[in-house]
Amino acid sequence: MNAIKFLAAAYIATWLIHGTYLTTLVGRFQRVRRELAELGKSGQRRM
Amino acid sequence: MNEASSSLLSVTFATLKKDIRLEWRSKDALNSMLFFSLLVVVIFSFSFDPLAEESRLIVGGLVWVAFLFAAVVALNQTWARELRNQVLDAYRVSPAPANALFLAKVLGNFIFVIVLEALMTPLFVIFYNLHVLGPAWQLIPLALLGTWALVVNGTFFAAMSLRTRNRELMLPLLLFPISIPAVLGMVAGTTAVLTGDNPAHFYIVLLLTYDVVFTTACLGLFETILHAE
Amino acid sequence: MLPCAWNHPLQYTHLSIGVPSKPTNSVSEPATTNIIVRDLVKQFGRFAALRGVTAEFAAGRFHAILGDNGAGKTTLLRALAGLAHPTRGEILIFGKSPQAACREIGYMAHPSLLYDEMSGMENLRYFAGLYGIAGDKRSEGVIRSVGLDPELARPVGQYSQGMRQRMSLARAILHDPKILLLDEPFSNVDVHSAREMVTLLRSMRDAGKTIFAVTHQALLLEGVADEFIWMQAGQIVDRTDSVHGPRLSTAVNTQQAEVL
Amino acid sequence: MKRGFIILSVITACLLAYAGYQALVVAPTERTMGDVQRIFYYHVPSAWTAFLLFFINFVASVQFLASAKPSRQAVAKWIVIAIAIIGVIAAFLPAVQEQLKSTGMRPSALATTVLMLPVFYFLIGKWFPGQRLDMLAVTAAEVGVVFCTVVLVTGPIWARPVWGIWWATGDIRLTSTLVLWLIYVSYLVLRRFSNSAQTQMLAAALAVFGALDVPLVYFSIWFFRTQHPQPVIGGGGSIDPRMLHILLINWVSFLCFAFLVCWARFRLELLRRQVEDEYAMESLGEAASTGARASLPLKRNAS
Fold it and tell me: CB–CB of A21 and D272 under 8 A?
């Protein structure tokens, strides 16, 4: 029974790590997209 | 080829002479290194109060950790000297080979750290009541090769961290992971000699391999690092 | 490689002190182009210091580079010296890359590029070694030519600003380069020393050197420099014969007037 | 491009679900370790993926360093080819075959592994020209560190019930993986803290140092262990073919997953650099856009 606990812990840990990384990736994507949009806007203003 | 190598040698020695002269005038690196490792010895002797047998087992680690940290202090100093007034740029615009600068810095640091070790070793012997059981002469190649291993990579990574923000912090971050095999070799080798349990030959070979591999790599890549901008 | 062969022994050893006399650029020889800059871009992450500089510069002339802070003057100079690798574009000096032509280039930066703890002579002796120049004669001559005393034992760190600038210039001309790149040579120097320096530079130009000087004190170079290069926002926006000469951009004109 | 990404992510999700089901339910329970052994189906593929990514990082870094100078590029090319040829020949030498027998590796397997080096080298050089090499290097290092973290976390969780301790300092695989992780974390830290104009060369040089360090770490710990016998050493023995099968399925699905993450990370890097470039042009653009400069005198002679 104890073994199952360790197994579950390992699975949760694995996907927690991957999930955290993917979340940060999504956050970084959003920030870059926002910056790109702002650049586009200010570029138009200049034109 | 011959002329190139002679200019390498002459520039190396000119730079080494200049570094030693500057160090002699300011004594920044040596003083801070000495005081730092003295502190380490004292603090360690307070935190561990071992018997003679136990100290043989742990002192190899203690000695090298103290020297490692002290070397980092010295390594940060060597390039800081070149950054004041941006003198490094004067070197970079000259036709002198990049590796001459690197070799001079490595030799300079090597001399400083060896001097430090020569001064600190008696202290360790006194504080930890050391008595070597193995062949003591093997400590000399271990010390020379180990110091070279620390200094050659340390000089390289100090040059690398010159170009980073918070560079004093970067050096240990870069240096320590790469130095793990060398540190293991030095510590295990020293312990082996002190306890006399097993031969230290392998560790000497390991350090030699490490030195050869990384000296080659440093010489191959230093020019790129120096001129990266 | 041989140490630099001295094409013309120090011709500018005699410093004439005083206000520079009227223009000497009556040079009418067809100047040869020997420095070519093509579409030079230098980017530092989110900031571009140079944005496509294209220009050709003639040999044997005195170029003054003017512009606001952050216009890319220093970066251009560093790129010419081979210190900054361009993100894009190329520089040809006598048909070679700046690194390959390093023996022809003397570079004087805003900081002194000298070791504060050593005397002037000790400094020059070390740098002469880097260029493979044996013997102290050349170093002593260069120190005299900038109006300092080679016997001075004081470390450079204790020099006055003017002396330090001159010693820095001595280091730059140590190997007798054909091209001199000077970054703010007159900053923090009193007017008298600045004028001396200008005279010295002019005599070097007359000896056949090509000089690039980044400066904020453009008036000092009026009548001395052959050409004024105006930089703005990482580009060369104009090249004129005099500080007050005709200019394409009026924006530069007004901004520069404030500086002067 | 975008559709390909979505299709691939759906396939990967299915694969991962199937592989997870196989690993957790279908796979036979190991006799001595029990259910804990199932951690292997995650742990081992993650490790292989991480090593593969670090290898890609190394190759991309070498390519990037070589691409700075044409002469260096030629030298690097011939070194890679020479290593491949020597490796293939060496794999079939009787002396080496003796050595291989003890590890249970076939010579053909070694030869194929060695041949991977030039294949990777040239393919990466072809597909990722110039700046993209550096982007590939960051991507591989970052995703590699994530997978390596998984390995380092699941490792002790497996070791605790089986060995009775969380961490065995003398164990080769554990310690060398930890060192590898440390090296690549310092790589990422360097990339973060160096000035942007210089980051790429410095990082590439550090990657080469890291790659040189790994065999030495492995070698030193191996000797350290033979000198100081450890209380526990992971059991060897042959593996059940069914287990191997499931392990491979898991590996394929993890590879797909890693590829997907790398793809996203690479896209992010592309976008990031695009933003950087546009900012750079913008930062000076405002001042420059005030006047038209169509006719610049490019060449002026003394007049």
Answer: no
